[in-house]
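Consider the tokenized backbone below.
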């Protein structure tokens, strides 16, 4: 790291301005992310390409452009080994800075919890199947809906699955009530007790291993439990939380480093190879790993459970290397051009070719569309699954209260719980084990947004469809989804998530090539405006020439401003807060610029 002297007259105005634009865009989308009123286009999305999703690939593109430029300059005056050591140190510093950002924002209290047994403990255990204990509640809810003496809207309830599932969920809450004398309410109470008995029967085959698991956890002692907790949290950090933009740049840069000095054809081949490697890793395990699928073997090995990651996580750098390599190729394109107009023309051709390739790949995602009949079935399945999980939550909370009460009372003997018909547990250890089994059942439900076949398109869906039906949503346009009035929880999308979609949580090859192409085209506009007509913004210059300082400090200023502005604030208030935050960040970087202090790696 160095504090450089004033800007060299040989600096390229367009690349400084473009870099500054990406930093300013990063400030905008990162600050507005927590606000509920912020438009979806300014937030990262998992299944379509928003404006926010274009910022990070653009930054990687300009990193690749500068990487090729500085590498060739260093090689002119140094050996390849010394130059490689310089970039290796640079990557290590980027990893350190990323960890520093992580350390400032993480909730470290999780690392100090030695009392609660984490669900990731003994991750290789046999998991129970989905519960059937919801069926007695569902049968009772349907029975109530057909009674002539039921509520006035009973007829509509018969044809409304959501109303039936909600009613079954409410009936399950009767396990916390004393046995009523009223006939109708007593029938609800009996249904709830029957559901508990079914849950008890389901747990029998898993109860003894769960008891052993609880005993193993308790036998570790406080120090041993803390070590297990640190093992799990360290794995989660390495899988997901550590991978800030700087760490991803450091890792992707190392992947590009062996090839940065080669001719364009070699780097194109490497770009294709890294895209293929990323696809192979995703098909092997990384798709399920990133999305926290419970039975994924890598999640069990790492003990990360249902923890999800963004940007591909620890195995994401091969795909992000594609954007860096695209930037290095863009540098080669402009070097042979004699005028800004020719440079921009080459960038446009190169960028639009990448856009066309990425968009063509994303069209394969249309084979994961769901028709109206499938959509209704999916909607009903989601309502049912949500109600089932709520019922298991009720049962877990019920038994947790009983376990807590046991801990406050003196030992009562073997049959202390005989009067409580809803409980199969006769001692605190068995209660804790049953809760662990219920939590496993609760966590075993699949993510209904994910396609069951995310990599191999269902070609049978291509029959009898017009060509227009294969066109994916263009960049900055959301995929078709519900209006939010007819579904529980998140909006129900009409296209199952798959590898070919333009999603940033898993930066697929279609996403990265399209995003790199957009960055290339946008940079071509900067070449025309800055290098041809001498245009430029001071704020872009300030951020572009001291990008590292802006990146590292903007998070701290954001935390300071967020402390005074609720996430539920209206959009004008959020934008006003952004102006305060942006001004503070700019003032700090501008003060360094005035003193000719430029922090570089």
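A designed sequence for it:
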């Amino acid at each position: 790291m160095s504090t450089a002297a004033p800007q060299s007259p040989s600096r390229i105005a367009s690349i400084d301005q473009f870099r500054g634009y990406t930093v300013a865009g990063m400030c905008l989308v990162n600050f507005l992310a927590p606000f509920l009123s912020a438009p979806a286009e300014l937030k990262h999305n998992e299944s379509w390409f928003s404006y926010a999703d274009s910022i990070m690939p653009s930054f990687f593109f300009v990193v690749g452009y500068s990487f090729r430029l500085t590498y060739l300059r260093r090689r002119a005056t140094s050996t390849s080994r010394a130059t490689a050591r310089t970039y290796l140190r640079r990557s290590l510093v980027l990893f350190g800075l990323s960890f520093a950002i992580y350390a400032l924002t993480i909730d470290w209290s999780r690392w100090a919890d030695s009392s609660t047994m984490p669900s990731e403990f003994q991750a290789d255990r046999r998991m129970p199947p989905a519960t059937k204990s919801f069926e007695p509640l569902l049968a009772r809810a349907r029975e109530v809906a057909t009674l002539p003496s039921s509520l006035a809207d009973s007829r509509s309830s018969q044809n409304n699955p959501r109303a039936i599932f909600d009613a079954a969920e409410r009936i399950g809450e009767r396990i916390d009530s004393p046995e009523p004398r009223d006939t109708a309410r007593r029938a609800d109470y009996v249904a709830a007790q029957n559901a508990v008995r079914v849950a008890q029967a389901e747990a029998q085959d898993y109860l003894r291993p769960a008891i052993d698991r609880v005993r193993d956890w308790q036998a570790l002692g406080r120090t041993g439990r803390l070590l297990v907790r640190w093992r799990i949290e360290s794995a989660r950090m390495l899988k997901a939380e550590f991978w800030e933009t700087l760490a991803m740049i450091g890792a992707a840069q190392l992947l590009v480093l062996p090839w940065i000095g080669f001719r364009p054809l070699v780097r194109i081949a490497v770009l294709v190879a890294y895209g293929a490697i990323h696809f192979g890793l995703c098909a092997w395990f990384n798709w399920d790993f990133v999305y926290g699928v419970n039975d994924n073997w890598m999640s069990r090995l790492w003990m990360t459970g249902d923890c999800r990651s963004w940007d591909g996580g620890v195995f994401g750098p091969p795909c992000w290397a594609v954007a860096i390599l695209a930037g290095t190729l863009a540098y080669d394109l402009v070097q042979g051009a004699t005028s800004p107009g020719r440079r921009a023309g080459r960038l446009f051709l190169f960028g639009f070719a990448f856009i066309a390739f990425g968009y063509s790949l994303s069209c394969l995602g249309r084979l994961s569309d769901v028709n109206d009949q499938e959509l209704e079935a999916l909607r009903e399945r989601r309502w049912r699954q949500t109600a089932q999980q709520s019922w298991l939550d009720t049962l877990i909370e019920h038994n947790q209260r009983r376990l807590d009460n046991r801990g406050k009372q003196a030992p009562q003997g073997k049959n202390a719980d005989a009067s409580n018909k809803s409980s199969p547990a006769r001692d605190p250890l068995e209660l804790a084990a049953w809760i662990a089994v219920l939590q496993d059942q609760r966590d075993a439900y699949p993510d209904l947004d994910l396609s069951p076949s995310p990599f191999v398109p269902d070609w049978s869906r291509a029959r009898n469809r017009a060509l227009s039906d294969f066109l994916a949503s263009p960049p900055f346009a959301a995929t078709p989804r519900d209006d939010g009035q007819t579904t529980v929880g998140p909006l129900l999308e009409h296209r199952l998530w798959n590898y070919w979609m333009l999603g940033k949580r898993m930066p697929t090859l279609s996403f990265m090539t399209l995003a790199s192409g957009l960055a290339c085209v946008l940079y071509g506009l900067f070449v025309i405006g800055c290098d041809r007509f001498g245009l430029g913004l001071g704020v872009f210059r300030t951020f572009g020439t001291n990008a590292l300082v802006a990146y590292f400090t903007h998070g701290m200023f954001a935390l300071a401003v967020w402390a005074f502005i609720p996430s539920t604030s209206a959009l004008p208030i959020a934008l006003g807060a952004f102006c305060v935050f942006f001004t503070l960040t700019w003032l700090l970087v501008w003060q360094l610029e005035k003193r000719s202090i430029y922090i570089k790696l």
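Residues 1-9, 150-156, 410-425 have pLDDT under 50 and may be disordered.
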